[in-house]
Amino acid sequence: MMTLSKVQNKRLHKILLENTGGIGGIRDEALLDSALAASHQTFDGTELYPSAAAKIA
After folding, report:
1. What confidence tier does 11 reach under pLDDT thresholds 50, 70, 90?
2. Residue 45, Cβ neighbours under 10 Å: how many?
3. Which 3 state secondary structure label does DSSP give 36?
4. Alpha-carbon span 8 to 6, nearest angstrom
5. Can you tell me the distance from the alpha carbon of 24 to that of 17, in angstroms, rounded to the nearest whole number?
6. Is the pTM of this model over 0.90?
């Protein structure tokens, strides 16, 4: 499965803001890191979100 890096996510966010409006900037870098890592969580060697759809949701 292809994943986006933190830099790619920031670029995508910037593009979305330019096209749709909104307030720019990131309030909490650590929270962003946590959100980006959430889809890769495992427990006892098993992925918590095994399918691409589950990771996205």
Report:
1. very high
2. 5
3. helix
4. 5
5. 7
6. no
